[in-house]
Amino acid sequence: MVKRPSKPRSVPLRKSQPPDLKGGRRRSRDPEQPALPFDPMPDRIEPCLALLKSSAPSGPDWIFEIKWDGYRLSVHLDHGQVRIITRGGHDWTHRFPTIQAAAKVLPVGTAILDGEAVVLDDIGRSDFSALQQALRGRIGKRSAEEAIFVAFDLLYFDGHDLRNLEQESRRHLLEDLIPADGGIRLSQEIEGDGPAILAAACEHGLEGIIAKRRDEPYRSGRGGEWVKVKCIQSEGFAIIGYERSTAAFGGIGRLLLAARKDGQLVYVGGCGTGFNERSATDLRKQLDEIVIDKPAVDTGRKKRDAVYVRPVLIAEIEFRAWTADQKLRHSSFKGLRDPKDNADIYRLFD
C-alpha cells in the first residue's frame, strides 16, 4: 500500500477570498514506496461520476474539493505523446494546446489524469461560458489557449493502474506529480466539514463542492463514491423549440426545454435569459437547421409563435428551483453542451 503523508496537504476555504487555485509545492517521492507490478495502459477509462445530493456529507471519511464548471476530460501521457479524451471518448487534443504542452513536461513517463478543462475569470472561478467562447475558436478576447486542466485524480502512473488504490493514496501521488502553476493544476483538498465548506463556497459565488469517500477505489459510473452538492443548480436540458421575439437577441424570446422522466422526454418549461448577441445568433443558426413541424414533446397549452426542433441540442441551464408541477424557476442559458462531451440530460424523479 502506498505510504500516506503524515499530514494531508489541504487548504482552508477562506471567507475573505476564493480558494487558491494553484497546486501545492512539490515533494520528493517516497523511496520506501513498494514496487508494483506493471499494468498495461488503458486506452480509455470511463469516468467516475458524482451523485447529486441536496446536502453536503459530514465527517472524516470524506475529502472535499471545489466543483469545477467546465468539460470533463482525461489526459493520457505516454512518453511524451499526449491524448486529451472527452467523457464521451472523443480525442480533443488539438482543442487544448496549453493543456497538451503542460502534459508533455510532467515528470512522468506514463500517466492518466482525470480532471476538468476550465477557463478562469478574473478572481479565479471557473466560467463555463468563457470556456465555450474559447472552444469556438473565434478571433476575439478569448482563445483555446486560455483553457487549463484542473486535475483531481490519478488513474495510471508510471506503468501502474491505480484504480484499485483508495482515494487518499491516489491523491497523495497526484499531489507529488502536479506543478504549482501552469496549464495543469491541482484541484486542492479543502479543510473542514462538508456543510461549512459548502456555505463558504456559495458565499464565494462558486458552483458547489465535490465530496469523495477517502478509502474508496476509483469506480467508473455513478456509484456514490463521489457526491456533488451545488450552490446554484446547473444541468443539461434538451432544446425542443423556441418562441420567436422581434426584440430579443437572435430572435429567440424563450427556449423550450425538456428533461428525461421514465425514459421519455418531458417538457419542463422555458428559459429567456442568459443570451448575448453572439450566443443567440449562433444558437439560432443551429436551431434553424433542425426545425420540425410538430413538437417532439407535449408542451401542454399551445405556445404562441413557437418553432419546434428535433431534440438533439443540449443546453446547459442554470436555475434556482422547481415549481410544484416540475417546471424550471429563474432559469438562465449558459451555453450549448458539445455532443462529443456526452453530456447528460437531466432526469426527473417523482
From TrEMBL:
Residue ranges of every copy of the ATP-dependent DNA ligase family profile domain listed in the record: 149-273
Enzyme class: ligase
Catalytic activity: ATP + (deoxyribonucleotide)n-3'-hydroxyl + 5'-phospho-(deoxyribonucleotide)m = (deoxyribonucleotide)n+m + AMP + diphosphate
Source organism, top-level taxon: Bacteria
Listed Gene3D superfamilies: 3.30.1490.70, DNA ligase/mRNA capping enzyme (3.30.470.30), Nucleic acid-binding proteins (2.40.50.140)
Single Gene Ontology MF annotation: ATP binding
EC number: 6.5.1.1
Stretches the record annotates as Disordered: 1-42
Keywords, ordered alphabetically: Ligase
One GO term of the biological process aspect: DNA repair
Database matches in InterPro entries: ATP-dep_DNA_ligase, DNA_ligase_ATP-dep_C, DNA_ligase_ATP-dep_cent, LigD_ligase_dom, NA-bd_OB-fold
Family: Belongs to the ATP-dependent DNA ligase family.
NCBIfam families referenced in this protein's UniProt entry, alphabetically: NHEJ_ligase_lig (TIGR02779)
Designated name of the protein: DNA ligase (ATP)
